[in-house]
Structure formats: structure tokens, C-alpha cells
Sequence to fold (253 residues):
Amino acid sequence: MLTLYNAAHSTCSQKVRICLAEKGLEFEDIRLDIGKAKQHLKPDYLKINPNGVVPTLVDDGQVVTDSSVICEYLEERYKQVRLSPDDLIARGRMRAWMRFIEEVPTAAVRVPSFNMGFLPRYEGMDRSTFEGVESDVRPIRKHFYRRMGPKGFQKADVLASLEQMAHTCRRMEAALADGPWLLGEQYSLADIIVAPLIDRMADLGMAEIWTETCPGVTDWYARMQARPAFQATFYPGSRMSEFLTLTPAIKEA
Fold:
């Protein structure tokens, strides 16, 4: 039995849900409240994932953490549907994409997400209270939260994140010239793990990052949205705009 501890709107959780759906794998879907209830920081959850983040996969009692690692684990463990190339060079290209996606857009998308949707949770908090109840209770995200603070990320942080997303789209555009997917004809884990990040930017109203200059990304996103696994992953309530009032990304006057 597969069990996935995840959150509906978490982009990292969405990566794994797409992968599970593409492989046709059934799983126990344990949805955590990572907002007000902070269920991902409770002692019981920290026992299985000391990082205090989602998702976590449990497969027959064995724990696997980190969304991209989980996707690679599922690819190796359940081979009935292949989501990576057999050719070693092509597989290396896929993994290079995966590392880039983790390094650049995965981190970048968090900045506008927090400034536009999650910041009201901290309204009225002073710095000391914020650090005591929000940032410093997080095993690996402490300094991300400290950098944000109760008043949000600064303009320079937001602009830097948007530039990183634009850079990501330009790299995708160049790769998509050779086929419908990032590896050409091969649909792969690279497409899966970047898809929730592109969807998040669209949900935040920032699709112009690619629609104006990267038509290949626009077409790729439409192909992703048409896949049954994508549609199963983005069920009602899995996008920020469905349950939060979005505000401007840049808070400075």
C-alpha cells in the first residue's frame, strides 16, 4: 500500500500526484493542513519526515522524502509505465533538467506565492513573534521565512524570482523546439516536476512570463493540462486562487 502525505496546493505534492497518476498507482491520500494547523510540523509527522515539509511517501512501511526523489523512486520501483528514457545520455539530460528545476524555479515560485497569497496569515505580527511561532519552528525553511518576515519579501526578491522564472521559460522554449516535451518525443519526469510551477505562475496571473515570448511553452502547458494525470492532480481546491484572496506581489510603495 502506498501512502502519500501531501497538501492539495503544494507544488511539490502536485509533482508526486502527477507521477502517481501517470503510473496508474492507487494510494492512500492523506492531506495535511500546512496553513493554520501546521500539521506538517507536528511531532507525529516529524517522526517520518524530520524536514517538516510535504510530501512524504510511505511504501509498504518504507519512507521516501523529497518530491523529486519520490518521483525517481516511483519510476524505479513501478516500471509498468516508463517516465524516463532508456538511453543513458537522454536520462542524464532528464536528470540535469530535474536538478535545474529544483535549483531555480522551485525556489523562485515560492516568493510570489507567499507575497500574494500567504502573507495575510502573519498580519499584525511583530518580528519577534513571527520568528517564535512561524520561522524558527521550521527545520529547513527557517531562513526562508526569516528573509520574508511578517511583512513579506522585498521588491528586489520578487523581481529576482520573476527573472528566474523567465529564464526557466526561455530554457524550456529552446528545448521544446526539438519536440513536444522537454526531451523531445519522450514525456518524462522533467515535464512532470516543472508542470506545477508553471501552473502556479498561471494561477498567480503571471502567465505573460511565457505567453508573450515563449509560444512553445504555451503549447506545452496546454498539452500538460490535457493529460488525465494532470487533471486528476489539480482537483478543486488545489490552486491558491480557489481559497485565497491574491494580492500584488510587490508590497513596497
Remarks:
- Residues 155-176 form the longest helix (22 residues).
- The chain has a mean pLDDT of 97.
